[in-house]
Each structure stands twice: as C-alpha cells, then as structure tokens.
Amino acid sequence: MSKTAFRLNVNGQDYEVLVEPRKLLSDVIRDDIGLTGTHVGCEHGVCGACTVLIEGKPQRSCLVFAIQARGQSIRTIEDVADENGDYSTLQQMLHEEHGLQCGFCTPGIVLTMEAFLKSNPDPSEEEIREALSGNLCRCTGYQNIVKAVQKTILRGHEEDKEIASL
Amino acid sequence: MKPSPFTYHDPHSLDEALALLNQYGEEARIIAGGQSLVAMMNLRLAQPDHLIDINNIPVLNGIECQDRLLQIGALTSHQDILQSELVRQSCPILTNAAAHIGHYAIRQRGTIGGSLSHADPAAEWPMIAILLDGEMEIAQLSGEKRTLGARDFIQSIYTTDLAPEEILTKISFPCLEENEGWAFKPFARRRGDYFIVAVAACLTLDQSGRIKRLRLCLGGMEATAIRLDEIEQGSIAHLPDENWIREVAKAACNEGNPVDDHNADVEYRRELVEILVTDALQDAFKGTQRG
Questions:
Q1: Chain A residues whose C-beta sits inside 8 Å of any chain B C-beta
Q2: Which domain holds residue A138?
Q3: Is the N or C terminus of chain A more exposed, i.e. has fewer CB atoms within 10 Å?
C-alpha cells in the first residue's frame, strides 16, 4: 500500500513522517519518531499503556491512526520532566511512594493523571480511582499510585499557600 | 495485530463525506472517535477498504437545547456530554450514563453518534436512546434528511437502519420534566466494562402522588435494549409504594429472552434485573420528591 507523507507535532517539535495510513499513532511515535517512552500493551484500547495527550486530552494512541493527528499537538512521556530532566511533581511522588515496579504502565498513568489533575485539581479518592480505572497496572495493586496522586495534590496546595503568604 | 490496509479519506464537509460514502458503499466505513472501530480493525474483525474520517466536519459537533428538546451532534464526545451544564440541567440521566462509558481516555475521543451507529447491545447510548425515545437525524446524499425513533433505528446486535450511504448527524432527546425521577443502573464486573445487565427508568407523578408516567428499559436481556411497555402502561395511576416496586421488579425479571454466555447465565441475568429494577425505581421515586 502507498505511503503518505505528513507532519506530526510531538512535544513541540515537528516531524516529517512517511507512513501508510493504517499505521497507528503509537507505532509512528515509537518506530518512526523514535520516542519509545510510549508503551504498547494490548493494542485494542484496554490497558492504557499507550495513552498520550492529543490537544491536551488523554487518548489511546493505539486507537488513533497517525494520519488523523496531523495538525494537532501531541505530548508524550518524554515531555513531562523539564529540560533539565527534573521530574514533574506527579513523577516525583510516584518515585517516592513506590507507585511503580516494572514501570510498563507508568507513562500512560502519568499522562492520564497529569491531564486529569489539570481539569480536576482537587479530586476525591473515588474520583482518582475512577480516572485511574482505564490504566492497568499488574505490579502495584494501585494503592501507591493513588497515594502518589494524593500527595501531588497536597503538594499543590502547599505551593498555593506559599504563594499566598508571599 | 495491525489493521489491514485501507485508503484514508478526510472530507471537510458533510456533502463531501456523503459523496464518498455513495461512491464506495459497503467497502467504506465512517470513523468518528474510532474507540470501537480501531480496536476491531487492530484485531482484523473489521477490514474496510476505505476509511472516511468525519472528525473535520465541525457542523456535526455540539449541544443545544430548543423547545425542551436536547439536540446533540453525532460527533460530540462522551466527555463533552458528561461535562455539559446544559445536559446536566435538561436531561441529567445522560450525564450519569456518560460517566459509565469506558474510561477517562476513551470518553475523550468516543462519540455519541459512533456509539449509536455501532449499536453494541451492551452500550449506554443505545439503551438511553431507547429509554427516552430519542430521535435520530440521518443525512442522505440527495440533501434529504430523515428522522427515525431509536427503537426503529437500532435493530439488532451491531445492526441499525442506516443504509451504507447514510450518516447519522444528530440525536434529539426530550428534556426530562421538572421533578421527573430517573435512574440508570448498569452492572459490570469491572469499572468501564460493557454492562452485563442494566436497568434505566424515568418516573413522573401527578399532583396526588400517583404515577403519571413510567419509562422502564432493560439492557443485556436481548439483542437490543427493551422497553417494558406493558408494565409502563399498567403502572399509570398506581401509588409508587414499596409494594408496587416489588411487583414491577418481579414482573420485569421475566421479560426478555436472554442467552447464556460467558458473562452470565439466564437465571443470573434475571436475578440481576430484579435487584436493579428495585434499586432504579427506589432512586427514581426519590428523584420525584426533590422539588
């Protein structure tokens, strides 16, 4: 089948790719662009490991054809830590709370929860677990992931207070 | 697995999309959110030769309410429906149903029109559309439109009345009445799964506290969700007391013609119906007492 050339914007950078229309966004991000932090688990939308942000919204990159994401901004796990490699608060808390073991599901969880906390900055534990329910983790039992998200929220509140007291 | 090859089309207007559909007919599939279709393509359960992407047709997207009729564009995502204040105020059972669909990331991309056109017998939107007698607006190449009630639109498992050249463009739901009680009770083993059995109900009372209208719908008991017309009619002018709820739950669990499958056998499904109808009617009754 014939390949199509188009441009994808990933983590603020434009990439020219030449791929078949049937190629999934997850595969283009990994194979053609070379960003292998996006993990591919089930390839039918169940496990959540391949979740990336498209226009700021968490979406399964295995359920989108790369050609459909032309002209949209895509963000992957490689863009979550800052340019010095310092973790985001959520990443740091996952590290401190042992919110991962093998780490296969972690990129999808980080992107899902980064987006979730942006749209819902003060969720209940129930809401956190609901948002997390689309990401399978076979190591942790989720407990420490929930703790890490809760600590991220607390840290945000502390920073707000510090700013208010200045 | 990976999808089989296809030609990708990216129409920017409804007319363009309809022309493509007319040209390729059954060789083509429309992709909206693709949250079921792409999974099926990855598993090669679907192998369309032509994929027509309607995501760049903005006219298909949006929510408005006119003359007590909530109108939702087919391309509107589950998440946009879930977050819509207009929906929450005029037809809150839709907000509740949207929250049960798939997972957070799936809801961002999946669409109401896609779900209805796919017609999975255990999906939320087909069931709610049947409960509320939603109206489907369907576009045809000739520029004509036709509208069809949900019960005629959804015909069987993965089967609708849509012809290969047609596109579902809009879904209209009558707004709930003031003080109308409602409940949506799906049962699934894991969060985000398709339900095994679900019950949905809407209830209004007259000024003397007797039942003015009941709408009651079961999912998971047949190839499509079913309305319990006889029970609905028979409930008019009844007092909505515990006795009535018990009788309706007993009668409802004998309705439908469910199958044994790996999720549940017939007995189990019937037992679930009895429990869920009881829960649903209790909640719906509470809802009528709010005002």
A1: 1, 4, 20-24, 27, 43-45, 48, 51, 57-60, 62-65, 67-68, 112, 116, 130-131, 133-135
A2: 89-165
A3: C
